[in-house]
Specification:
It is a single chain. By secondary structure, the chain is an alpha+beta fold. The chain has three domains: about 60 residues, no CATH class; about 120 residues, 2-Layer Sandwich (Alpha-Beta Plaits), CATH 3.30.70; about 50 residues, no CATH class. It is built from nine helices and four strands. Strands 2-3-1-4 form a four-stranded antiparallel β-sheet. The radius of gyration is 40 Å and the shape is rod-shaped.
Length: about 260
C-alpha cells in the first residue's frame, strides 16, 4: 500500500525536529567560517593586458579590416603559445620561482572578449606582488619570443599589473562560503529529520495503531504522572475531609434541633 504524507505531517516533522535542523545549519556555517578564516590560504590576482595589432606603414592611412580579422584569429594561437613551456620555462628561470612550468600554467588564465584584439593575462598566487611580477614577466617574455616564433610584430603591451596596498583576496570568500554552508546545512538537517521520522516505528498514539497495525482502538489508558497521582490523592483527601466536616455539622444541627 502506497503511503502518502500531507503538508500538515511535514510541518509537524519540521516542528518536531526544529532544533536538530537549526543545530545542523549552525554547525555547517561555523565550519565554513572556520575553514575560510583560519585554514584556507588567501589567493590574489594580478592582470596584464596586451593588444594584438599589426603595425601600419606610413603610406597606409586606414586600418585594413582583413588585418584586424587576422589579428583576432591569431589570438587563439597566441593563447596556446603563451602557456607553452617555451614561454613559461623562461619565466620560471628569470624570476627564480620554486615551481615548475606546468604548475605555473595552472595559475594562468588567458582571456579576451569576442572579436577583441585585447588579451588579458591573469595570474593567481598566494602573494599579490609575486602574482604581478609573474603576469608582467610572462607577457614580456611572450612579446620578445613571438616575433621569432611567428615572424610577426603585432603584439604590444597595453597595461602592466600593479601591486596595490591592502589587496582583496579573490579566494576564499567567507560570506559566500557561509551562505552556501547555511543552505546545505538546512538541506542536510531536513533530510536527517525525515530520515529519523521514517526509521522511527514506535507507536506513540492511537492513530499509529490504526495506521500501522490496521486494528481498531477499543480504549485508551491515560498516562498519569507521579505528581498527578499525588495531587489527585490530596484532592480526594480534601474532598473527603470536607464531606466529613459537612456531615459533622449536619449531625450537630440535628442534635440541637432535638
Amino acid at each position: 500500500m502506497e503511503e502518502t504524507i500531507s503538508l500538515k505531517e511535514i510541518a509537524q516533522v519540521l516542528k518536531k525536529r526544529f532544533w536538530l535542523i537549526l543545530s545542523t545549519a549552525v554547525a555547517a556555517v561555523a565550519i565554513a567560517a572556520l575553514l575560510s578564516y583560519y585554514f584556507l590560504t588567501p589567493t590574489y590576482e594580478a592582470t596584464t593586458q596586451f593588444i594584438v595589432n599589426t603595425s601600419q606603414s606610413e603610406e597606409e592611412s586606414e586600418f585594413d579590416v582583413n588585418d584586424i580579422r587576422t589579428d583576432v584569429e591569431l589570438i587563439n594561437t597566441y593563447n596556446v603559445v603563451i602557456k607553452s613551456p617555451a614561454i613559461l620555462d623562461d619565466v620560471v628561470s628569470e624570476l627564480e620561482l620554486n615551481r615548475s612550468a606546468d604548475n605555473l600554467r595552472q595559475s594562468l588564465n588567458i582571456s579576451s572578449e569576442q572579436n577583441s584584439q585585447v588579451v588579458s593575462v591573469t595570474v593567481t598566487d598566494t602573494n599579490q606582488n609575486r602574482a604581478a611580477m609573474v603576469a608582467n614577466t610572462t607577457v614580456e617574455v611572450f612579446h620578445e619570443k613571438i616575433q621569432d616564433y611567428m615572424n610577426v610584430d603585432n603584439v604590444n603591451i597595453l597595461s602592466e599589473a600593479q601591486p596595490v596596498d591592502n589587496p582583496t583576496p579573490v579566494s576564499p570568500k567567507p560570506l559566500l562560503n557561509m551562505a552556501i554552508a547555511l543552505v546545505l546545512g538546512l538541506m542536510v538537517g531536513v533530510g536527517i529529520a525525515f530520515l529519523l521520522e521514517y526509521l522511527d516505528n514506535t507507536i506513540k498514539a492511537e492513530k499509529d495503531i490504526e495506521d500501522k497495525l490496521g486494528l481498531p482502538v477499543l480504549g485508551i489508558i491515560t498516562h498519569i504522572s507521579e505528581d498527578e497521582i499525588v495531587k489527585s490523592a490530596e484532592a480526594a483527601n480534601a474532598t473527603s475531609l470536607r464531606t466529613k466536616r459537612g456531615e459533622s455539622r449536619y449531625e450537630t444541627k440535628q442534635k440541637e434541633t432535638v
